[in-house]
Amino acid sequence: MEEWTANLDKEVLVELVKIAQKRGMQGSKGSWKEFLSVYDKKFGSSLSDPARRSTDALAAFLKTFSQDDLKFFDKVIQCHSNRSTVEQFKENSSEVESPEQGLVRLTLEHSQYPLDYSLPSHKEGWLVIKCSKKKKTMRSTAMVAIDCEMVLCEDGTEALVRVCVVDRNLQVKVNELVNPNKAVADYRSEITGLTAKDLDGVTCSLSDVQKSVKKLLSHGTILVGHGLNNDLLALKIDHARVIDTAFIFKHGDGTNFRRPSLNNLCKAVLGYEVRSKGAPHNCLDDACAAMKLVLAKIESGFDDVIPLVHESVPDMELSKLLLHRIPVNVPSEELHKIIPGDFLIEIKPQKKARGGTYSAFAIFKNHQEANQSFENISECPEKDSSGLPQKCISFHLQSGVTGSLYVRKMARDNFLVQVPSRKRASQVEETAKESKKLKSDDVVGEQTKAGSNPCDGHLKEIERLKHELKLRDEEISNLNKLVVALTRKQGL
To answer: In this structure, are residues 366 and 319 in contact, taking their beta carbons and an 8 Å threshold?
Structure first.
């Protein structure tokens, strides 16, 4: 273990700790914050950003984990190694990088790649397709696209029930129904389009599918998919040469990573919808769509910004908070002891494999109460992979169960109807009214001359005031952190 951590750059150590936080992982001394409370008597967990901690502190935390957890961390390190291999090949090769290889590199360089593609391939039943570093393999431009559908089994796991693979000419290479070989609790017919009757007499097994896919991925063939890590998890296949269409497009202003749906990408890039709203997935259509997106990206270049189709957030959705990465050993009724406020719980059906966690919605009376509950959570806010505000809560229940989960808003903070709390809502309205009273004559006069809507100026003023309140909140938060640190230092 000493040698394992000693050979890693701080950047990698920071990423390992952040991934441990996101997955709610705990070592022999608890979570990252719990570890800091013991490790650092001076500041404790008040300085919890891994990037601001020393290499020694990061390594000491990682050393508290079990061998199974260390095997997972090894996969994260392998993801970094995959990146390095592709980058070195580009630097050392005298040839111009092919568009296909460029998209592989773009996928591997994405910030989300180590988290999503650290697959548990050390476990039984997994197929690891080793990628040769030979020039012939690395130069290969052969591609196949894949999509899978899964059902929920009675033992709480997920099982593969359909897989489709197409080549770059959209010729079907694999189109199989798969016997889950387990008792199925939910066929998720609204998503998979399948029922128990569809699987009657199906003999194709996961092992059979693995053999078929392995043949297609020999000699450096690139595997394409949307959210491809989920398909690999269902297939129990680990393959390094991948292109994930959720990673290779720039979205909106390009400042935040936002994971688009396959349907939205197809609307924006290809000009058509893969499916109508509420319709089940079609595995073959989704595989073809992923391949078409890659081919469109190759033709249009790497640097274009793809505008996403805007989806409005209904008022009913704004009254919810998404609770995710909830450990399965935490009953839904216990969530009321962890999340502040008065709400109902709605368990969210799983579409993809999530391991030992589940998700749920906390449903409040209105969006103000949902926002107030989020604000009452003391942990520092961060952004999820879609750029939405969320907070990570560590908990210790009376039953002795400890762990962590994430609480996420349903829209961004700059969404027009969203404000942090009722109090701040009234502050914004009062200040805006006062501003309107002072400037109304001038604003209306100028806008009338210009032929524009007088409301536009009011909306801009409200947005400006909300931005000022946000900056003030950040200042207060920083001051609170400083007070906590000084209090701990003085032993008060």
So the answer is: yes
What are φ and ψ of residue 354, in 5° steps?
-125, 5
Return the structure tokens found at 485. 């640190």
User: What ranges make up the beta strands (E) of 138-177?
Assistant: 143-153, 158-167, 172-177
DSSP state of 422: H
Question: How far is residue 50's CA from residue 361's CA, in Å, rounded to a whole number?
Answer: 29
Whether 178 and 163 have beta carbons less than 8 Å apart is answered as yes
Distance CA 139, CA 220 (A): 8
Residue 107 · residue 244 · CB < 8 Å = yes
Alpha-carbon distance of 217 to 241, in angstroms, equals 9
Kindly report, residue by residue over 322-362, the tens digit of the pLDDT.
Answer: 998 898 888 888 999 999 999 999 887 765 544 578 889 99
DSSP state string for 80-139: HHHHHHHHHHHHH-SSPPPHHHHHHHHHHTSTTHHHHT---TTSTT-EEEPPP-SHHHHT
Which residues are CB-contacts of 491 (< 8 A; sequence separation ≥ 6)?
Answer: none
Q: What is the pLDDT of residues 192-246, one digit of tens each?
A: 889 999 999 999 999 999 999 999 998 889 999 999 999 999 999 999 999 999 9
Strands across the sheet containing 320-327: 344-348, 357-363, 320-327, 402-408, 389-396, 382-383
Amino acid identity of residue 150, one-letter, is: M
- Separation of alpha carbons 334 and 431, rounded Å: 40
Residue the block writes with tokens 């007088």 = 454
Q: Is 128 in contact with 240 (CB distance < 8 Å)? A: no
3-class state of residue 453 by DSSP:
coil
